[in-house]
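Apologies for my clumsy wording, but could you write out the amino acids of a protein and the tokens describing how it folds?
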Amino acid sequence: MEVLAEVNKMKKTLIRLILFIILLMLTACGRGEGGAAGYGAGGGKSLREGSTSPLHSPIAQDETYQKLLGLNILLYPPPVDDPKFDEFGAAYWELDPTDFVQAMRAEFNGQLGDQAEYVPQVEALQDHPLVAQIQETIYNGAPVQVGWVYGNNANLDYLELNEATVTLITAENALFFVGSKANLDTTAWTFDVKNALAFYIPANAVVSLNPETLHSAPIRVSNDTGMLTAVIVPEGLGIEPAPPGQGMDKALVSEGRWIFAFPGLNDGYYEGLTGKNNSIVSVD
């Protein structure tokens, strides 16, 4: 028994050493210019430009991302400029959300709790010029509504599916989980979160998710800043409550909005997630 305990101790030490070496390598790779504040500069710069490796993009060189990656290495969340994200949505680096983010921060006076809170309509942001740009660029001119989600939330907790494109604008660095609707188990109407991937979104970014993508709420990267993200969807989506039904509609919460949650959260959502409820380690 003593020999077995010693072997297990050596294995744990070796794993820690390997993770530490990986973190050092990533940090060395990441030294260079970049920073979250400049990503939404509206200059249309592609974060893949000049490199075929996502680890060499400006996002991946950012110190905050490097630290987040080291602390959550088993999840290995790539930035949203990684080609792996293409099947789930798109990032719009040509749009400049700087002024919108400032307006959002000035308007926000909510409390950042342990759970993400979603407000589907924030009238003060509705007429901002960036919203009109997004309306034309992403929604082909169709009317949209602006809300936000906020919190100091650390866990995956649930995955949401919408019948239309969802656009996020990050005031702070965030991480989220996404998965494909195709991986829903249509027999039990459950989703195994081993099929979900984590991605990092820098502050001051505009990112859209397609209608076939299940997604978590954005998750805070820093306990000090929490998470504040604008949510833009087609007008009327998710406003009127709808009773659950059969099939996928077991998870229906409002028109065009389905939520699959882990069992035991006591939030009233359909318990349709299986696997591990992943938690993100904060950078501070």
Summary: The longest strand covers residues 144-151. Residues 26-38, 40-54 have pLDDT under 50 and may be disordered.
